[in-house]
Amino acid sequence: MAGSLACVRALATVLLLGLATVSRSMNLQGKESQEASRIPSQFSSQERVAMKEALKDAIKIPTVSFGPEEFNTTALAEFGEFIQKAFPTVFKTSFIQHEAVGSYSHLFTVRGSDPSLQPYLLMAHIDVVPAPQEGWEVPPFSGLERDGFIYGRGTLDNKNSVMAILQALELLLVRNYVPRRSFYIALGHDEEVSGKYGAQKISALLQSRGVQLAFLVDEGSFILDGFIPSLKNPFAIIAVSEKGSINLNLQVNMAPGHSSAPPEETSIGILAAAVSRLEQSPLPNMFGDGPLKTTLQLLANELPFPTNIVLNNLWLFRPLVSRLLERNYITNAFVRTTTAATMFNAGIKANVIPPMAQATINFRIHPAQTVQEVLELVKKILADDRVQMHVTGAFDPLPISPSDEQAFGYQLLRHTIQSIFPEVNIVGPGICIGNTDSRHYTNLTSNIYRFNPVYLNPQDFSSIHGLNEKISVQAYHTQVKFMFELIQDADTYQGPVPHLHEL
Length: 503
Ligand SMILES: *[C@@H]1O[C@H](CO)[C@@H](O)[C@H](O)[C@H]1NC(C)=O
Ligand SMILES: *[C@@H]1O[C@H](CO)[C@@H](O)[C@H](O)[C@H]1NC(C)=O
Fold this sequence. Notes:
Layout: H1 2-36, H2 45-60, E1 65-67, E2 70-71, H3 73-86, H4 88-92, E3 96-101, E4 105-110, E5 120-125, E6 145-146, E7 149-151, H5 159-174, E8 183-188, H6 199-208, E9 216-218, E10 223-224, E11 235-242, E12 244-253, E13 257-258, H7 267-280, H8 292-300, H9 307-312, H10 314-327, H11 329-335, E14 338-346, E15 352-353, E16 356-365, H12 371-382, E17 388-395, H13 408-420, E18 427-432, E19 448-450, E20 455-456, H14 458-463, E21 470-472, H15 473-492
Parallel strand pairs: 5-8, 5-9, 9-19, 10-20, 11-18
Antiparallel strand pairs: 1-2, 3-4, 4-8, 6-7, 7-21, 10-11, 12-16, 12-17, 13-15, 14-16
Bound molecules: 2-acetamido-2-deoxy-beta-D-glucopyranose (2 copies).
């Protein structure tokens, strides 16, 4: 038995090697003809105007997610009709199938000409967080253009991606492009509140069809500009993981009483002390575990003395660098599980000692930790049995997607980034400190990449979910160009060709 099994293996190896050689030579021929038919990403001035006007129209539809079960369904329905008008070719092309999922999310299946190539997925989301009028230079749903910028909720998070993906596909189709590699486009409508009715349903649908993806690209990271003062060039971060999360409810129950004769400790006092202990005992700094270290080392050579020496010698300077990173609240979020007290409730009357006090703490879990580990640490910090812990929602950090030489999706993205943004010298892996719809797709691929091809400076960073969110017309055009090239690159990019002896 064992012997014949070995023979079958040997035969299989020979066949595989043979096939690999044949398919490689076919690929090479394919590549040449494909290169010849490559469509340049040049757009007429008329197309460029239409592009930005379409983005403005998208911003004007207030597709707000107000809460987990609270959507503006009128706006979401309107958005569905809007994309049909804005991208007519996408909707009438015979090799593209459109499906509305969960009523307001959209799945496009683009059938490529070569079924032997594994499909990929491009993602974005239609919904936005609320935007009160106060504090905005222009009304948040006006889509007004000012000084070369289009303003409005969703210009960076994430209608820019929704529109750029569909726009690029529309422009390719108008130029008669037929993709070789199949791909999907998934546009969720409730990303900001969970993805339960959008992304989760689309993922389930694709799983029921037995789909396996080569990779997927979602929002979640950017080309960072001006985050490191002494760094002249912007650098691109492809997020290969995202933080996990715990919503922890803390509750203290005590006997109720009259405020005229109070006990030594009240539910409010006990809970307040517990929350304060959590704030004063940050969870451990995990710098050195995870992709951030790799990227800092890549950046080292771009930085002046002495930062370059420090980053090139993390074996020595690791404690120093990790302390520096915790000083800024944004970089701090990259090196540890964060603790945020978000709700605190107790009491109903001025002269009644309340029987119960409750607080909610939101933890964002560093990829090197798990929900279980964080809960154990929290229990130790609280060190008070009167404080009950109830987890109301939790998920582990996302697995780390590969970013090595052989990681096709990662290398493809890197290739497209470097061709569209030649001034960007460093493309490195990172983590996403927020959450994206892509976390619902882990059964479809282990190659999940989060990257928005847009420059982001610290001011832009705070405009996301904040005030005066905006994108320059130029940056949006570049994003369309990026998607236009990425779709073609997915058909032609050969990646680092494996050597035969490695097989
Ligand atoms: C919902 O969207 C519609 C437009 O589609 C808009 O007229 C309406 O004001 C929005 N409602 C809320 C509460 O924002
Ligand atoms: C992944 O697949 C498993 C097994 O079929 C299933 O239980 C789980 O819910 C799936 N997860 C997601 C995120 O779809």
